[in-house]
Amino acid sequence: MSEEEKIKDAIESIRPHLQADGGDVRFAAYKNGVVSVELLGACGGCPMAKMTLKNGVEAVIREVVPEIKEVVEI
Predict the structure, then answer these.
(1) Which of 71, 47, 44, 41 is nearest to 59 (CA)?
(2) What is the DSSP letter of 73?
(3) Measured on CA atoms in the order 43, 44, 46, 50, is the torsion positive or negative?
(4) Bridge partner list, 70
(5) Strand, coil or helix: what is 1?
(6) What pLDDT, in 10s, does the model give residues 14-63?
(7) Is pLDDT at 71 greater than 90 in this prediction?
């Protein structure tokens, strides 16, 4: 399984948690160790979005693909 496939699987594993709060996350790209995602729904305008991105999404992806440098929102 490629790194990109592992990243997508990790994102799929956390989507239900975000969807339960009215939000969502979409994989956009993976290049040079940087994962780009789009926060949707309630996550898009939430003041806690940066914390969710770093402490939630990035943490889960790093467990699966430790080589990533960071996760950024587009």
Answers:
(1) 71
(2) E
(3) positive
(4) 34
(5) coil
(6) 999 899 989 899 999 999 999 999 999 888 877 888 888 888 899 999 99
(7) yes
Q: What is the SS3 assignment for 26?
A: strand
- Environment class of 71 (CB within 10 Å of its CB; exposed 0-12, middle 13-18, buried 19+): buried
Task: Give the largest CA-CA distance in the chain.
Answer: 35
Question: What pLDDT score was predicted for residue 21?
Answer: 86
Contacts of 56 (CB under 8 A, 6+ apart): 14, 17, 18
22's tokens: 């009215």
User: In angstroms, how far is the first alpha carbon of the chain from the final one?
Assistant: 25
